[in-house]
Amino acid sequence: MWDKIKQFLAAPVFPDDEEKTRMAALLNPLLLSLFVVDALGALAVPLVFAEKLGSAIAVLLIFVVALVAKISMQQGHVRPAGLVFIAGTWLPITIIFQLSAQRSFSGVLLFSSTVIAGLVLGRRAAVIVAVLSSLTSLLVYIAAELGHPLPNIFPAPQLANWVTFTIGLVMVVAPLNLALRSLNAALNRARSYAEESERQRLQIVSLAEKDALDLKRRTAYLDAATQIAAEVAAAERDLSVLLHRVVEVISRQFGFYHTAIYLLDDTRQWAVLQAASSEGGQRMLQRHHRLRVGAEGMVGAVAAHGQYRIAQDVGADTYFYRSPDLLETRSEITLPLRARDELIGVLDVQNTDIDTFVDEDVHILQTLADQVAVAVSNARLLRQVEESVAAERRAYGRVVREAWRELLSARPNLAFASDESGVAPFTVWEPQMKTALQTGQAVGAGDGLAIPIRIRDQVIGVIDGRKPDGTTWKQHEIDLLQTLTEQLSTALEGAQLYEDTQRRAAREQLAREITAEMRRSLDVTTVLQTALHQLRTSLGLTEAEVWIEETSSESTSVSPPSEGITVGM
């Protein structure tokens, strides 16, 4: 029962309608105040007011109005309850005011009803109540001027006037107090909203700054990756230049104090400094600085285990190596250089402040380290390929020289000259021809021009031309002669390869024929005689011999030949 009473007295709450809840919270205390005022008025009617019946009717009417408005509000009809409340209180107050002997005191009640109308229903309701009150007073005044004054039903003893005035003050103070409370609540809400907005603004600013910093880091990362790719393309063969440019790019893009690259030596026992961006690092390079793998510094630890390591405060890190050339270091991150599943070195980055590196730096720097590792590996592979190609060229050059030496030994007079009388052997070498043969460069002397003949970077001869009128060679004529010389080199190489193939084919054919002749008989003597005969006739020998020697299994000494066969001319 008590809970139901408390529920009835409390202002209803409407979660889905904030304005409705606000109006109910404002109207409910007014209705409760009206119940209290009406109860006090009921007590004052028999004691104070002269017109007891009229006053009792007014008190009863106000009670009914307050009760109907309260029940309507509890059922969710807040605005209709406000209309009932305003209309139900304004009408008896206006009647009392117009039929009262002392209107100055009861006029306070009209003023309070106007204020309440404005608070409950808004500015328009207050204006309407004020206008109606003014028009009612005007009509009463006109009627009185026309000789029809209203009677004074409610006399005005002093005590009744005081009660009326007090009730009017209560009806004014109560809504004003509610208005002030509502205003203070609105101000507090506005202040709370402002504080929340400020917190949100600061959070947004903080997030924006963080996003700007992240964007700056990502931009620096992209710029660094792009520049490193460009440096890799520009210095793909010179590994030292490549590494120097890489550390400079990383330090410049991220503002690091010191960036260095270490590569493992052939023994994989030492991490040798190859490039550094700081002045101290340059001094370390001049001293050929190196760190033992697994034993010295964070570089040695990463080189041993292949996992990155961060020291946000190097003073608290057990692996940190204090270099006398890098005294300003306060934080350090070291990452492995890994290419094709092989650890080849370490990227070392140091800074002058503690807590410099964030988790994103690990990802960014590791990506750059992987890019550098691939570049280093590619440079090494390219160098190995170039060395292999150079070795193959040298080997092939020796083969070419041997082949041409054999060819020239078989044909010692491969020199020809062409003039008006035709083509004939040539035996006299001009000085410019010897120079061109030795230097491998075209040599011009007066009207003569000697151009070396090359086969796979090997100079095998010289072509020499002379102009009949003694004029110098023009550039297009030189270009033409060089082009013809290149074509001659290709043709000579093809001819030499063809002759070499022919000789090999002839040897293989001869070997097959001799083998076939030897296999025609199963007699040892016949086989030996056939072999000797074929060898002598095929190679043009004057005499060929074969001896079969007997060896003893019990002694390492060779016994005298037991049998021999000789075939001669």
Model description:
It is a single chain. The protein is of the alpha+beta class and 569 residues long. It folds into four domains: 2-197, no CATH class; 235-385, Beta-Lactamase (2-Layer Sandwich); 413-505, GAF domain (Beta-Lactamase); 520-568, no CATH class. 62% of the residues lie in helices and 15% in strands. It has 14 helices and 13 strands. A six-stranded antiparallel sheet has the order 3-2-1-6-5-4. β9 and β10 (448-455) form a beta hairpin. α7 (158-234) runs parallel beside α11, α8 (239-254) packs antiparallel against α11 (359-410) and α13 (475-518) packs antiparallel against α14. The longest helix is centred in the middle third of the chain and has 77 residues, at 158-234. It is rod-shaped, with a radius of gyration of 59 Å. It starts with a helix and ends with a strand. The model is unreliable at 555-559 (pLDDT under 50).
